[in-house]
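Sequence, please.
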């Protein structure tokens, strides 16, 4: 047994099992924030309905919704929230297994073990493992694309080009940021092939792979181009991230899920890891050429993609938000894994610190995982508010009402930005803005107590995103004014666009 534990296979098995057990204890969360509700509602739609919504009102690539639909179909409806979180969790385990197999084959035991360990220990991984959005799927696909892409610089087989091409197409259909990152990856591979005088040998296969991926993704580009104008009416990314972007060099993935007493601890380990990556410039001076190439591809593709997004956000329109950048997390961790594997003393020190500080992160997410905010809100509403009452839903609480309270009549009000996360035409239980409000005495809000009344109950939400649900009792005049203002805003938006 002792020999097995000391072996690579033993360490790999123990690492995956430990991750599965530790993370598995947090997967019982019964809350979904608004974007996650959107994902679940989309996955529950029929395939024709999902397709209609994607090409008319959503425009996001469809792969994640199809994947989530498949996972949720394996479990009874009573466990659908659990299944939704589980869908991201198993992708993290998949990333570990890929590191312990494919990365090990190409770059050795140490890098493989460090990559698998980092994918479990870093604070961002806790966020990725439970978020019911595409980010974990996209992160895994980009990680795989990098490894398969670098194989093309050695002595590639036809199977290597096929794997690289397939993963590329899947990544493109998971998130639009993937296209920008893959552009730099393909450019880097092309540059190396030409520099090493291998392009003449593999030119046909490389061009066929790149061209095939572009052709297969091109039909989908019609969707965002045709619906982009509609999307801009109710959703945007602000410019704030551009001003704070230099913080990337210290902390590229803000652990926004971990903002309690453990926040500073998790911030420290994330910042320390960035320092480890930058140390790679000096640590890898004497490293094998293949190892250096892995490091520089991981760092440079991420940096180039990040900087281009910042430039585009500043010059054209804001398009960067912190959580989108988390799809590059595994690529960034791979760069750090290379440094830690080559620097034994640095690796041991960082490993001990990361393991210690992971305890803070895990304690925090356990608290979040067992949070009953939404559960309590639903119970109170169903207990004290008669179903004949109409609820006015503000900001993005229309999604909460749609998913958790389908038996109630809810009236969606447009906010000051005209933002509605999921348009009323998609929602099955949200009535039009012009409905009779004679029985409306309550509002629901996720962000602020936006009514003139202060008689509100607050229910904390998952992830501490500021989405604390406010249930407010309001007077008839306030209700009338809210809906009237909403209608006027809606007409103004319609006239503008």
């Amino acid at each position: 047994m002792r020999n097995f534990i000391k072996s690579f296979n033993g360490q790999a098995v123990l690492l995956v099992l430990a991750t599965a057990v530790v993370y598995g204890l947090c997967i019982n969360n019964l809350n979904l924030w608004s974007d996650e509700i959107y994902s679940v509602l989309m996955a529950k739609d029929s395939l024709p309905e999902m397709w209609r919504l994607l090409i008319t009102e959503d425009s996001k690539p469809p792969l994640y919704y199809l994947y989530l639909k498949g996972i949720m179909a394996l479990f009874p409806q009573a466990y659908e929230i659990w299944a939704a979180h589980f869908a991201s969790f198993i992708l993290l385990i998949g990333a570990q297994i890929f590191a312990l197999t494919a990365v090990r084959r190409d770059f050795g035991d140490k890098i493989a073990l460090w990559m698998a360990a980092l994918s479990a220990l870093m604070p961002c991984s806790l966020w990725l493992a439970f978020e019911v959005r595409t980010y974990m799927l996209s992160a895994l696909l980009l990680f795989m694309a990098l490894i398969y892409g670098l194989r093309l610089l050695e002595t590639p087989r036809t199977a290597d080009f096929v794997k690289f091409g397939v993963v590329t197409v899947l990544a493109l259909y998971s998130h639009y940021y993937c296209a920008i990152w893959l552009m730099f990856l393909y450019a880097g591979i092309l540059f190396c092939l030409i520099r090493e005088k291998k392009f003449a040998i593999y030119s046909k296969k490389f061009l066929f792979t790149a061209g095939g991926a572009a052709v297969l993704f091109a039909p989908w580009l019609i969707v965002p181009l045709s619906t982009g104008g509609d999307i801009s009416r109710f959703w945007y990314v602000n410019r704030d991230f551009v001003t704070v972007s230099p913080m990337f060099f210290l902390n590229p993935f803000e652990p926004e899920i971990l903002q309690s007493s453990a926040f500073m601890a998790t911030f420290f380990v994330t910042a320390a890891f960035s320092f480890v990556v930058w140390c790679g410039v000096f640590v890898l001076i004497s490293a094998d050429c293949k190892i250096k190439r892995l490091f520089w591809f991981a760092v440079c593709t991420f940096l180039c993609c990040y900087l281009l997004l910042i430039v585009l956000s500043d010059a054209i329109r804001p398009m960067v938000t912190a959580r989108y950048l988390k799809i590059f997390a595994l690529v960034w961790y791979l760069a750090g894994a290379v440094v830690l594997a080559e620097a034994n003393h640095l690796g041991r020190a960082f490993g001990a610190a990361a393991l210690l500080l992971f305890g803070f992160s895990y304690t925090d997410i356990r608290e979040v995982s067992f949070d009953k905010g939404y559960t309590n809100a639903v119970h109170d509403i169903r207990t004290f508010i008669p179903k004949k009452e109409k609820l006015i839903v503000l900001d993005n609480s229309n999604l909460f009402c749609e998913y958790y309270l389908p038996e109630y009549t809810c009236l969606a009000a447009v906010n000051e930005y005209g933002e509605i996360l999921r348009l009323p035409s998609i929602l099955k239980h949200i009535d039009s803005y012009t409905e009779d409000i004679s029985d409306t005495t309550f509002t629901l809000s996720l962000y602020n107590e936006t009514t003139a009344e202060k008689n509100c109950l607050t229910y904390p939400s998952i992830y501490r995103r500021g989405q604390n649900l406010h249930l407010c009792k309001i007077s008839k005049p306030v209700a009338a004014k809210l809906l009237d203002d909403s209608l006027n805003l809606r007409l103004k938006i319609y006239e503008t666009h």
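The two ends are 69 Å apart (CA to CA).
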